[in-house]
Specification:
427 residues; alpha/beta; Urease, subunit C, domain 1; TIM Barrel; 2 domains; 8-stranded mixed sheet; 31% helix
Length: 427
């Protein structure tokens, strides 16, 4: 069908400061004006969105698709389906694959594969360093020409500040932001959980908050020195929020993101040694969670992400300290954020939540997405903010099941995902 009319929905489009009950028109895969839908009797699909929010297609800029190299955990195809089921129309895939996308040919393979099998827009991030080793810069210029939307060594963190400085300077030359997994290896050591009461009680190696904050501080200094955006991934500590707040108030080009598990859970959850509660950075204390919520409320933390990190069941069914870090998140992310931030804690309203999943990441990554402007690609997410549902990992589209939220009762979820004018998923 060439034309779709979404009727009677609550249209929320933060990019255009639009917040109203209205109809939305889609023609030839783009958002259209009413006048462009000439003959309402011919080949028109009508969607009744009464009681639903009609939002720009949501963006998740922190996703692990595991291809190439680890397709037993997830594939580009299954990860894209999981994104669609979570309400996301655009995802950015991280470079900790095998081979590492530290060259234009691997980026081309990812883009070609995504064009062939993905039901949502899949955008690659390139590596900062060759083989993610943190010792020699990847060819950032050719990665940018190949079409990466950012560079990051996510899953790893460059420890040499001089190498990181050069990376930021090259990124500035070619116009891509730098995303950083903030972890000081010498401070963190072999830590697997938050250093505090529960790590001591359980006899598990501690991962102190300072191990994150030291690198956040480094990134603030480099963003200021190089006058170029550095984005701190999956922040977890009160100290990180404080550092970011002070730097942003000074106009430093530094930003931070938050993942749902870091506000839904505390380190108390690890007491049964369930490896589905093991992630990097780890679950922190209630004091940290409260600071993260305040950072979301005042705009210090500006982007919402999943850090979707699939692992096969056999990989997680081992002792806690040797299990891999990470959980899946694409299909629970929106529900958790609406439930926690809008309904439970009332830290932000639904308009700001949509802003943090659309225009904020689009602005940072310079994407032509996250808007319902006429002429824009028709990527649309329909959300029922009042829908009560129970998480069931058995119904997930992801190839993996490593979620700590199985059985959780949530309020709010995506009910239809439209990419380029075509419905790719509906409840």
């Amino acid at each position: 069908m060439n034309t779709t009319i979404i009727r009677n929905g609550h249209v929320i489009d933060p990019a255009n400061k639009r917040d109203e009950i209205a109809d939305l028109y889609i023609a030839k895969g783009r958002i259209a004006e009413k006048s462009e839908v000439r003959d309402p009797n011919s080949d028109v699909e009508e969607i009744d969105a009464k009681g639903l929010i009609v939002a720009p297609g949501l963006i998740d800029m922190h996703v692990h698709l595991r291809e190439p190299g680890f397709s037993h955990k997830e594939t580009i195809e299954s990860g894209a389906r999981a994104a669609a089921a979570g309400g996301f129309t655009t995802i950015v895939c991280m470079p900790n694959t095998s081979p590492v996308p530290d060259n234009s040919s691997t980026i081309a393979w990812i883009k070609d594969s995504a064009a062939r099998v993905a039901c949502v827009n899949v955008l690659p991030a390139g590596a900062i360093s060759k083989n993610l080793a943190g010792e020699e810069l990847a060819p950032i210029g050719s990665l940018a020409k190949a079409g990466v939307v950012a560079i990051t060594d996510d899953g790893h963190c460059i420890q040499n500040h001089e190498i990181m400085r050069r990376a930021v300077e090259y990124a500035r030359m070619v116009g891509v932001p730098v995303l950083d997994h903030c972890q000081d290896y010498s401070l963190v050591g072999n830590g697997v959980v938050h250093e505090g009461y529960w790590s001591t009680l359980l006899g598990l190696p501690g991962w102190p908050g300072a191990g994150e904050e030291a690198i956040v501080m480094r990134n603030i200094l480099l963003a200021e020195l190089c006058d170029h955006p550095i984005h701190c991934q999956h922040l977890t500590t009160a100290g990180s929020v404080r550092l970011l707040r002070e730097a942003r108030a000074r106009g430093v080009k530094i930003s931070g993101e938050i993942c749902p598990h870091h506000i839904a859970l505390t380190d108390e959850a690890i007491q049964n040694f369930d490896t589905n509660y093991k992630m990097n950075p780890p679950l922190r204390s209630q004091t940290d969670v409260d600071a993260l919520l305040d950072g979301i409320a005042d705009g210090t933390l500006s982007i919402l992400c999943s850090d979707h990190a699939p692992h096969a069941e056999f990989e997680k069914e081992v002792e806690f300290d040797v299990a891999p870090f990470g959980i899946i998140g694409l299909e629970t992310e929106l529900g958790l954020f609406i439930d926690l931030l809008v309904h439970k804690h009332a830290k932000i309203d639904i308009v700001r939540l949509i802003e943090m999943c659309t225009i904020e990441p689009a602005r940072l990554l310079k994407l032509d997405a996250g808007t319902l402007s006429p002429g824009a690609r028709a990527d649309v997410t329909l959300i029922d903010p009042a829908l009560k549902w129970t998480v069931s990992v058995d119904q997930f589209q992801s190839a993996s099941r490593n979620s700590p939220f199985n059985g959780w009762k949530l309020k709010g979820r995506a009910v239809r995902t439209i990419v380029g004018g075509k419905t790719v998923w509906k409840l």
